[in-house]
Structures
1.
Amino acid sequence: MNQELELKKTLDEALEADLMDDDFYEDAQKDRYMTFGIDGQDYGIEILNVTEIVGLQDIAEVPDVPHFVKGMMNLRGNVVPVISVRLRFGLPEVEYDDRTCVVVVTLGSSTIGMIVDRVNEVRTIPEENISTPPQGGVVAAGGQFVTGLGREARSVTILLDLASLLDIQDQVNL
Amino acid sequence: MKPCHRWAISHRGNAWFTQMGSHTVIDDGDLEIFAAFVEEGGEMMDEVEPQLVELEQNSTASGEVDLETINSIFRLFHSMKGSAGFLELNEVVKLTHKAENLLDLFRKQEANLEGPDVTLLLQTIDLLRKVMDDLVESGRDDTYAAEVVDMVDRLQTSISAKASPGKEPPAPVVKDEPQGEAAPPPAPEPTPEPENAGPSYPGITITPEMHAKYMEEAEELLDASEQDLLVALNEENEAVNLAEALRCLHSFKGNSGFMGYTHLEKLTHKVESTLEKVVDGEIKADEKALTIFLNVVDTLRGAVADVAEDQGCDIETMQELHVELDGLLNKGKGDAMPKKSGFIPLSAMKKPAESAPVAPESPAPADTAPAGPPAPEPETAVAPIPAQENPAAQKATPAAPPGKKTGGSIRVDLSKLDTLMNLVGELVIAEAMVTRNPDLDGHEFENLDKASHHLRRITSDLQDVAMSVRMVPLAGTFKKMVRLVHDTALKAGKKVNLNLQGEDTEVDKTVIEMISDPLVHIVRNAIDHGLETPEERAGTDKPEAGNVTIGARHESGEVWITVSDDGRGMKREVILRKAIEKGLVDGDGSDLRDEDVYKLVFEPGFSTAASVTEISGRGVGMDVVKKNIEKINGRVDIKSTLGKGSQFIMRIPLTMAIIEGMLVRVGRSTYNIPLLSIREAFRPETGQVTTTPDGVEVVKLRDDMIPVVRIHDLYGIEPSFDKLDEGILVIVENDGISAALFVDEILGQQQTVVKGLSDYVGSPHGVSGCTILGDGRISLILDVATILANAATAPAMVVSQ
């Protein structure tokens, strides 16, 4: 829980810093990724879309939706749908632990929560360090959502395309 | 820039104010209006000033005057004059009018704009500012009367110097002046400006917001004028109401002119002129005249709607109306005056003698005489309110702080209110999380308890307030019925007294929208079919005019909107016969209760063919009633006594945003079943349940066999109980179809705020929305209608007997 709070703080600071400098808003958000872990692998999404990170909450199941949509949660009085990124990747579900978090993102007019195993940090990955995803073969789970690979000194972050990750119409069975 | 728009509303509420004259001491409410006026005026002047300066620079540089800019400055002064006129700020009117006259010369290119003129205009603006500031301070506009007179003189001198003697002698200018017509040239003929003004005035961009505002206010104004016209028809104080109608129309005209809708402006102008004659007693306010006026209002309303959709307008109707109005004008005047004069909107509120043009120069000093209550006038019908208010106002004002006050009402985006509601709901949960925090268990904190108690009270008050914000009184909807009753009665050849009761009853805004149509149908039916003709009534002991009462009241957590008539009542046999003919009733229907029989009139297609029988016409459009009311979780009851009349009761939940539901648990999930569709709930005994050969479980309840719908199967969740006799069956009913929903247990009954599911998940099957429970968890609201419809399509699902 503490770790989550810390991360939240980092994120808030990052977002705040961005907002404070209007002129550099675009620039400041550019190349910055919110990273999270699924099944031991790091993934990143553009920070632009991330609104907040909350702890796992009670989720009401909803019928008649794709299996990766876990249901609805209450985010300060707003009813927000929640998906499990694990299930979306076609991975088996695991027990939620104290590091399981919900990353709340905004895409278009929808606010959606994404359950991830853990939230890591906000990373700056300059464009030149991003290579296109290898053709053919899937690098890791969720291969079809990959926009690029962010190379860093010791690790590789898989950058995801949020739009296709969240696309509810695309119900490709994994 | 947009004063007319705002005035329109504040004005009506303060209709009596004008009666008091401009130099009467005003009360707080009006101070507020003045403050708003001053604010707008200030904005306007801020706009004019740079334009003037620019104008001067350009004209000195090139020797040419930019007509566009002059026009736009002219408009701004004109708008300000209009607003000031409404508020009877004579000093401001005088100044702006003069400035307008001067600008008019430049506008018509009868003179060239020169440096000194600009200076003069700027000085005028400065003086206006002073006057306005003082207005807010003291509530008077005549403090600087002397300076105003001086400035007016200077402007006049300038005008006289400019105007070529032959064309425009100074004298007529002065004479014309007080008429203060809203449309620049007094002639009723198409005016040159509006035509080339196009969709908007030069220099002013009509933003979508302004447009929206215009639409909204146009509607209100037209509604209001319609009301007044109708009241004028029926009641004695017709002059007062006509004058109010006139004012509304005038505001509307101003707005339309501002927006550049010349066709609307012209027609309104014409009807205004005619109405004015009626007010002055030159034309008789008979039925025919009022019908024409009402037609005009209708046409205008239609035209406004067309404008909204960017469509052309119905010029033909308008032309016809123009002709009709002309006819009316001529009839009233015998040999018509050669030229219609423009008019002062306020004159309507004064007695005719006073409405005669007031030359600004001479009466100005007279006006500054100590303010007193308005001298008794013949038309003191308006006076009741001022009479009460006036002394109070006079007393109150000195004490009232001169500062700008806010209040009244504002328009707020509904989505903002929703957000507010959300946050308040969350606050309530958060409060519980803090004050009932498990960390506090087993400890006694006296001060903390006190503080939490305090907090709880505030949050619950806050919740009430937040809820009440969405509530709107029914008065607006009811008032629309006045016109409807008038028209329907006329058409049906019946005499009707309409009584409105409980107009102040408040319901949710969304509810208002939904009940409008049903109310129209019910009222129309009550008059058309419920009430007897005057001849028929003459044969009974009832008065010749039928009574229709529309009422609203709170009743057991619902709002009841009732429409009662004292007509002939509904005939059970006639309805039943028809229903059996149409195949709506099986058997002879003798087992049906009267009320159920009456309700057959809501069945679609019930009576379409049979306007022959006296009662059957009631079916037309009545299915809409039921549908709409059910959409907002309400229901309609009918009571009727043969020969005495009928009563339709629309029972509507206070708000659509709140649902009264039964909370049930299935496995780990909580669901909300709308209470309205629940008939009963029970734990079945083993013998009660049978399984049909095709695998459908049916429960026998008294004489009915009701199919069982297992919620856990429907939603694919893990239940606590699988055997029917371990859980609970909730019998739900909709449209005559029943089903037994199998749930684990009933948690209780609760009123909760309804929320839509996110667009992201669309609308899952069998779920109509969700609510957030007191503990912050989400529960889905079952869509009983869909569940039942699905159950019904399954084979052998509805087994009767």
2.
Amino acid sequence: MSEVHRGVKPTLLELAVTFNHIALASFGGGLSAWSREVIVVEKNWMAEEEFLSAITMCRILPGANQVNLAVFVGAKFRGVPGAIAASIGLSFVPVLIILGLGYAYFQYHQVPALQSVLHGAAAAAVALTLAMAIKTGRKCLNGIVPLLLFAAIFAMNGLLRWHLLPCLALLAPLSLVWGWPKTKKQ
Amino acid sequence: MSAKTLLQILLLFSSLSLLSIGGGNTVLPEMHHKSVVDYQWLTDSQFADVFAISQAAPGPSILIVTLIGYKAGLAAGGEFMGIAGAILATVAMMVPAGLLVYFVVQFWERAKNSSVRRAIEKGFAPLTVGLVLASGYVMSRAADQDWRAYLLTGVCTLIFVFTKINPLVVVAVAGFLGWLGLV
């Protein structure tokens, strides 16, 4: 990955425009996968591992995960103004859209007929999420321990539908012990 | 009357913001109870419809609070109050949790090259991949209702993994197939 590009700080406008793009692209779902496509692949603002740990921290912290991620990325580059720019970028246009839909719903008691379009788009959004798991997994599931951690949390959260917190309470300490740097070199 | 409603919106959503550990969905039951039973801003079925709209619309699904705030304001004082309620609910839901994230980022940037940060970055990666796969799995159970939708998801996954085609094009084509009634 090009470290060079990562040295460049995005401007406030760039943050707002980028998160607006992510929000609008996620029509049908898959916001996390879209965030990765844009932030890691397209813009190269964060390295893969930093991004992955950021989205898990944003899930643990209270608040909507995607808003948290916008605050995280915005604040990382531009402090408080950056956090505000990214959150407004993420939510301003979607708020206008949802208010339009809400107006139509409460006024005419029906939602504009988008159901069938959404049905197809949702199938693709699921695919983008699955593809993100495959693409990131190929990079970081490179040993028996990470594979076991991955499989365990998928089984607990996905198959057994446990809440996020008990899953992490059990597995996060193990993963931190595994991830702790063993030597002080580098 | 309407000032009281705005105050209720502010207090409800700013407290839910800090309670929503693990994501906005975790406070939906509490949000439902307060807005339907306690404050009676919306009916049960309106809450369900508003939930569906917020899931379908682009952007963070937490924007369900925008619609709840809108309806609360609407009932208290008409269209203008509705917009005020919507904005207030959205801001109240985002700011308290956002502040917390902001402080974590401060720590995070200062902890560059520390053992803690390296342990989190390395250790959380496999967990995140597992959680992403889990959410893809759960989403597919909800979104894909028959073999054609599963097939479309499968084909799109292969395209995303093995080609460099812009995902937006793929989502648009899939939406078009849905519009044609093929999925």
